Amino acid sequence: MYNKNNDLIKATTKTPSLQETHPEIAAEWDYERNGSLKPNMVSAGSHRLAHWKCPKGPDHEWATAIRHRARRGHGCSICANRIVVPSNCLAKTHPNIAKEFYTPMNGVETSLTISAGSNKYFYWKCAQGDDHIWKTSPQKRTLFNSPCPYCNNTKVSTTNSLASNYPHIAAEWDYKKNGELTPDLITTKNMKSVF
Predict the structure, then answer these.
(1) How far apart are CA 103 and CA 173, in angstroms?
(2) Are residues 10 and 74 both part of a single domain?
(3) Higher per-residue pLDDT: 31 or 187
(4) Same domain for 9 and 73?
(5) CA-CA-CA-CA torsion for 38, 41, 42, 48, nearest 10 degrees?
(6) Same structural domain for residues 99 and 125?
(7) 120, burial (CB in 10 Å: exposed 0-12, middle 13-18, buried 19+)
(8) pTM to 2 decimals?
(9) Which of 55, 83, 111 represents a domain boundary (last residue)?
(10) Across the strands, what pairs with 125?
């Protein structure tokens, strides 16, 4: 029976313990940080906060309610990229992309404090041009393999504009017919019809 006073299973009840009902979850029990509390003393529905250790890394330690693990299926917060530690930070998992993380424009965040799965937007800077600075999420950079939009010719810079790459063609530009569009504002891969 559930004991509301201390959330522990009474020895006189027949309520199965977490150890009995979910041995795979009990195997991740952090005995050191949970002190005298053991997985055979609590039920799978316990609201009590417990500490856990994932076998995938020595820094995969987190705390959550027992029922969140057993009833809701919550696994390792580090493996799920909800908590950032040295083994799952962007600098460790994707070092080449982490090199483009533009720290001067990202406040206190660095490639050591975010994970590849983050959907928060940050600034990036490509080494191919001083004006190759753009904003996107680590998730888009890593999961969707999103490259530099300037090198990919989806954004205009001084390195990929028609004016800087083909000045002889830009010299033939009809500024009146093209309105506000200039050779500096389109890439060499532009598909628009221009005059």
Answers:
(1) 39
(2) yes
(3) 31
(4) yes
(5) -60
(6) yes
(7) exposed
(8) 0.73
(9) 83
(10) 133
Query: What one-letter code names the amino acid at 29?
Result: W
Q: How far apart are CA 118 and CA 100, in angstroms?
A: 16
* 76 and 123 both lie in a single domain: no
Q: Are residues 76 and 1 in the same domain?
A: yes
- pLDDT the model gives residue 20: 95
Residue 166 within any structural domain of the chain: no
Residues 98 and 76 in one domain: no
Element (H, E) at 141: helix 138-142
> Cβ distance 172 to 144 under 8 Å?
no
Is residue 175's pLDDT more than 60?
yes
Mean pLDDT (the chain, rounded): 91
User: What's the pLDDT score for residue 13?
Assistant: 64
Tokens of 45: 């529905």
Angstrom distance (rounded) from CA 140 to CA 148: 11
Summarize pLDDT for 11-22 with one digit per residue, the tens: 556 789 999 999
pLDDT per residue as tens digits for the range 96-139: 999 999 999 999 999 999 999 999 999 999 999 999 999 999 99
Residue 188 inside a domain? The answer is no
Q: Report the DSSP pairing between strands 122-125 and 61-65.
A: unpaired
Kindly report the length of the chain: 195
